[in-house]
Amino acid sequence: MFKRVLPTVVAMLVGILVLLGYVLPVESLTWLRDIILLRWAMVLAAFALFVAYLSLLRVHVLRLTSVRKNKFTSLLMILSALGVLILVLVQGLEGPLAQQVLTAVLIPGESALLAVTAVTLIVAGMRILRARRTAGAIVFVVVAGIILLTNVAYSVYPEVLGILRQSIDVLATAGMRGLVMGIALGVTLTGLRILLGIDRPHSDE
Amino acid sequence: MMNQTLLQLMALGVILVAAIAFALYGIRYRDQSPPTRPVPVFPGLTDEVGRVAEEGVFVHVALGNGSLIGDDAMMSVAALQGLSGLLGLSAAYDTPPLITTGDPTLYLLASDWMRRAYVRTGSADLYKSAAVQFTAASPVTYAAMAATYLSDGGIGSNVVLGAFTQEVTLLTTAAERRGIHSSGGTASPQGLGALYPTLDQEQLVMGEDMFAGSAAVSQRSSALASLWTQDLLRWLVIAGILGTALLSLAGLGGA
Amino acid sequence: MVRCPKCGKMNQDSSRFCNQCGTTLPQTRTRCPQCGLMNPIGNAFCSRCNTRLHDSEFQLPEQPKPPEETPVGVKGISLPTLPVAGDGTLETTELPDWLLELTEQSLETPADALEPTLEEPFLDWLSDLEDDTAGEVAGDATGRSTADAPVPDGVAPSATMPDWFDALPEEDEEAGAAEAEVETPSSLAGVDDEPALDELPDWLLATATPTSPGDVPSFTPWPEWLSKNAEEPTPGQEETEQELPGWLLQSAEAPPSHASPAAHSAEEDAGRVVPLPFPEPEEEPVSETSAPDWLAALYPAEEPEPQEAVESQAGQTASSLPDWLMGISEEEEVEPQAAATEPEAETVPDWLMGIYDDEEVEPPAAATEPGAETVPDWLMGIYDDEEAEPPDVAPSTEPEAEAVLGEDIPDWFADIDGKVEEAGPLAAIFTVEPEEEEPALEADIPDWLAGIMVEEPVPAQPQTFEQETESGQADVPATDDIPDWLKGMTPPDDEAAALEPAQSAFVPSETLSEASEDEAPALEAGEIPDWIEGLSPTAPGAVEEEAAFFDRVSGDESLVRAEVPSWLQGLRPPGTGPLPSLPEVAYTDKDQLDADIPLPQEGGLVRAEIPDWVQQYRPSADGEVGEESFLEPSETDGPLAGLRGMLPSGPLMDMPADFEPVSLAAKLDAVYPESIVAQAQLWQRLLEQPRSVPRPVAQHRVRSGRGQQAMRWIVAVVLLAVTALGLLWGEAPLSQALSRPHIERFSRAIDALQTGDTVIVAVEYGPAEAGEMTPLARAVVQHLADRNVQITMVSTLPEGAGLIHGLLEPQALVNHLAAGKAAYLPGSSSGVAQFLSEPAEAKMLIVLAGRAERLRWWVEQNNAQSATSPPLPVNVGVNAATAPLMMPYLETLPVVGWVVGLPDLAAYQEFRGLTSGALNSQLDALMLAHWAALALLLFGLFYYLALGKKGAS
Q1: What is the DSSP string of C808-843?
Q2: How far apart are CA B101 and CA B135, in angstroms?
Q3: Over the stretch C159-209, which tens digit does the pLDDT of each residue have?
Q4: How many other C-beta atoms can be found within 10 angstroms of the C-beta atom of residue C783?
Q5: SS3 for B92?
Q6: Secondary structure letter of residue C73 according to DSSP
């Protein structure tokens, strides 16, 4: 009982206090929210990052010791993780080596990965009718084409496509708003269930 | 621009209305199951477990990057609730899924859920902590690392459920290359734009349907009441938008 | 003797299986109480419906069935399939179990009422006598000499009978004639309160001689010793009444007014009679007045009749039978409330019902009494034979009795050990009061019943029914009249006196005797048959009589010892041991009767010869587990305690997948044999193997073929080509940077800054978005530097600090952070809120966001600061992917201007007058890439549209 009740009580209490601190202009609540509770959350998040980092190293060390393929990638992963950690601990992020790593490795690498997504997205768009043969798929392609066509203004008669683009923007924005509203309602109810202790992801389902 | 205080009070009012409606729906539907629109993705997840168990492979579950201290916290919790059936069945079969996360706090929560699934089945000693992994802190790097697991083999099914953006397409492409069945969904429009052309209608859950995972899997009265409260609030918001728009057209009030 | 159909070995009649080959003897079967299937006697559970056939050998139900429950209708004599729940325990373990149960049931009866309510479990075994399946009557298929035993009409005999029935001694002709003389105790007559006859078995009902259709033969309550379970013999009448079994108590109370409305007609009873476990008897007419003498003697007469009077009762009609014998109906319609609410209700035991022959013998209370049953056919035949027999039926030898039984008496009455000296406590039960004479019934009483009657008065016996009533005492039938099977039931010598009934059993109360005055004189009012009276162990005098009876019975060599079957032994009350096979003990005093006396071999029933292969199924009391028995370990607790053959559980079944038997080897060896441990270890190894070897993929996955790979390459090449083309295009730009209002506001807001103003710049993009956002960030930083403002750069991303450094260093700018503050802001939105709450005198907030949520944090927290200070003007620079999500924020919240991606950057630079060729080339490349993507999308759309559904496969 102690293991189940205490986390639930803490979660409910903290959630209610933080919520009241946001909606009620009470200074003490604001102080409690910002200074006490959220700082505790920062510390916990930092600790979680540290635990996750160690878990990552452990997984790849196990992959090194096990009879599996891709041992080289695991070794590279371990070395890079430890190396960057040591480097940043020594020089900080503003250090020259760190900056070199950032500008020469991280940025190009992630940018390349994001560029790959462009290819995959185009390929997926080309094969959309293979996945779903519905009118929505055709509308999807048509709208995507209009966006692509009007994203960059042409040097010749840019206003024509601009009107088309504004129309699409209105529809896209409206749809986006509706989607975000629904998500917000879902988030509200999910958070409410946790606040009321009905759902207990921290201790039980 | 509206007064900040007014905005806060409106927010509090919405929460109170939601709480009252939730309680009323919960009391009404505590002994019955109200009709809900089916979301075939969540029941299909348990089928995937059985299928991969027969093949002797694993299920890969990508939970995304939704941090528990950020805006996507509830999205990640909803994803875990929708996966609770899959986790439980996997624990029963002792074929744990390979769960990858892009956030450390989500990693802790996911590992705890997986361990509890084993505890519930009475086989806590069979839980392997390596089944849940934190691969990377950035979304694109996380997707790339998770895609390598799909390429290595041993994965029979790919489930992407959580907070994603366009990098999720790396996962679905890798799965498609290996002939791995993919399913899942996200609430983010960017992620939906990447998943929509890849997954068919029965494999994709979009937007707020993600928050129906708990009701679809557990069929608890609280989860079903939550869905019905969502619908009620949605209609109230629609009514408010339309009313405000009409009033603005009439020159009364408005933003 | 029964010949085995397989090997031809002669087995005792009580045997259910051949002692040589184990073949199930046809007549030895157990009827399932649930489905009626005849199961081998060795089966503990029905092979059809898995109902428990026999209770545990050493367990008895703890809670007796409440009397309000509807007793199971008795359709005849059936085999006990369920133990009888009793209130107390039995002391006299030498008594057969079925009788011990009777005594237990009698404890439930109230003190002031001879409520002959029988518990359903007890009635079940009697109620199952109805021969539902003629095929089950397999007695004809065997060499049983009793195959032709007559069965009363309406009662189809079943194929099996319990051993103790079979062990009933065969009577010779003399014994049969003597047994036909059943004295009706005088106390049985004229008893007002009569039990419900619907509970009496047919065979017993058939013996009733109703005086009128509406009358119910009355009878006296059971003898006290019979009602009591021999633990606490009380002299009080009420106590004995409570202790008597229900079916016996019912005989004591049978007022016509309490007749159950569920009385059945003879014809109705014929259809519902439970077949008796013996072959179909010959159809023999039974005179309407052909109540057997011994049963006629049961009905009360004006005074107890001597033994000789029993012989004169052979011709008594059914109308003279006590009420409890009259109108014994079949069961199901018995109203439990009628029996429970009326303490004097004549709730005839079901097993006694069905006695009446529906077609030939109609009890007088058949129309009114619920127990108005006709005598079963098998029993009716007895009367015919008995008519020709002299009333005095000496205890016949075994073959003689068998011969008689073969004609008249059901098999279960056969083979009763007629040796009086060997008779155990059962002998007292069937002691016939010698002083009661039922000459009218002698001719109707079969020899085996005639032998029941005790010719000599028993000197001491417990209190009997008669003592409980106001009527006189019934005589104990002479010893010669005791059938052999009763003689075998002699109690130990020291308790013989206590067991010898001073008067016949079924001594009715005075009221019963009064009610039965109008009945035929076959049974005098208040008369209890001697053989019933002799059952009383309570009354001092009765005990003595019973003891004398046992003496007589034990000395009768003609009484065949009944083999107590195992299932009967299972009915033994807890704490009692198995029935001993040897030696016989003669009960001489009451104390011995009350004590926990094992049934001796000499004085009691012959122990059944249970084959060895049946013995292994016997649950051991000590629960020891041997090497052999481990293969079928016995359950140690629960309802299956003591039974073997259950599924093994525990460690053998609950081993986890990674179970390491090595650590438990020693422990297992201590409990389980080595062979079992080896098997478990082998299983464990087999289970572990699949995990160590690669598992084959059962399903063939459809991987992306060459077409998809080619498509990816083509798209990649096309995109690279057009990008390269755009970058290298040196001609006039293909694209145009259109200036829009939000871009102009963005620029003008920065131009409005003064020198020395502090501007907060939030760098909220990562390395992935750096390729698109870094040019925008550098342009903004350059613009701010041109305005000579102080820049405070922060980021909520860990890698943002490095990016900040890369933005400021080329411009030689300094990040104006507060003392002790870092560029990294932890805590997401809370960190932002905390940062903005600190007084920094900033003039503008510029957010360069590559992720929507981070932009939201800054914008929302900036607005939240309005309570303390006015919000800062916000300029936003986002990438093309974030813009659609942030548009609601950008258009409503206090955002001055925004720049979205490369096109707006180009327009921003052009607005500032900083036209760059490189930037235009990038814009051209971007536009060409967009056109290429569009073309590819359209190509794919039309391609798969053209392919149709085949393209989707």
Answers
A1: HTTTT----PPTT--SB--SHHHHHHHHHHS---EE
A2: 6
A3: 445 455 455 554 444 444 444 444 444 443 444 444 455 555 555 555 544
A4: 20
A5: helix
A6: P
Chain A touching partners, 3 or more CB pairs below 8 A: B, C
Q: Residues 95-154, chain A: which have Cβ within 8 Å of C?
A: 98-99, 102-103, 106-107, 109-111, 113-114, 118-120, 122-123, 125-131, 133, 138, 141, 144-145, 148-149, 151-154
Intra-chain end-to-end CA distance of chain A, in Å: 15
* Cβ neighbours of C796 in A, within 8 Å: none
* B173 CA: distance to closest CA in chain A (Å): 7
Q: What is the pLDDT of residue C337?
A: 43
The full set of domain ranges for chain B reads 40-245
Residue A78 has pLDDT above 90, yes or no: yes
Using the Cβ of C713 and the Cβ atoms of chain A, whether some distance falls under 8 Å is answered with: no
Nearest CA in chain A to C924: A152
Arithmetic mean of pLDDT over chain C: 61
- Which CATH code of 1.10.760, 2.40.50, 3.20.20, 3.40.50 fits the domain covering B40-245? 3.40.50
Among the residue ranges B85-99, C307-321, C439-453, the one predicted with the least confidence is C307-321
pLDDT at B162: 93
Residue in B closest to C894 by C-alpha = B1
* Predicted pLDDT at A34: 77
Q: Is C943 exposed, middle or buried (0-12, 13-18, 19+ CB in 10 A)?
A: middle
Q: Do A153 and C799 touch (CB under 8 A)?
A: no
pLDDT of residue C486: 59
CB pairs under 8 A between B and C: 70
Q: Which among B108, B113, B167 has CB closest to A48? A: B108
What global pTM score does this model have?
Answer: 0.55
Residue C670 has a pLDDT of 63
- Please state, in angstroms and rounded to a whole number, the distance separating the CA atoms of residues C454 and C735: 131
The nearest CA of chain B is from the CA of A33 a distance in Å of 13
What whole-number distance in Å separates Cα of residue B16 and Cα of residue B28? Answer: 18
User: Which of C87, C379, C359, C397 shows the shortest CA–CA distance to C243?
Assistant: C87
Q: How far is C656 from chain A (nearest CA, A)?
A: 24
Q: Is residue B62 within a helix (H) or strand (E), and if so which, with residue range?
A: strand B58-64
User: Quick one: pLDDT at residue C36?
Assistant: 78
| Residue C48 DSSP class | T
- A153/C712 touch (CB, cutoff 8 Å), yes or no: no
Find the CB nearest B107 among A52, A110, A114.
A52
pLDDT for position C200: 55
Condensed to tens digits (0 to 9), the pLDDT of residues C691-718 reads 555 554 444 556 667 788 888 899 999 9
Residue spans of alpha helices (H) in C228-297: 237-243, 246-252, 266-272, 293-296
Q: Are the Cβ atoms of B71 and C867 closer than 8 angstroms?
A: no
Q: Which residue has the tokens 């994203």?
A: A151
For residue C263, is pLDDT > 80?
no
Residue pLDDT, tens place only, C206-250: 554 444 444 444 444 444 554 444 444 444 444 444 445 555 555
Q: How many CB atoms lie within 10 A of CB B14?
A: 17
Distance CA B194, CA B188 (A): 10
The string of pLDDT tens digits covering residues C503-530 is: 444 444 444 444 444 444 455 556 666 7
DSSP state at residue B212: G
Q: Any idea where the domains of chain A sit in the sequence?
A: 1-91, 132-205
Which among C656, C699, C708 is the nearest to B123, CB-wise? C656
> Does residue C601 contact residue C489 with C-beta atoms inside 8 Å?
no
Minimal C-alpha gap between B65 and chain C (Å): 12
pLDDT at C682 > cutoff 60: yes
Between C639 and C94, residue with greater pLDDT? C639
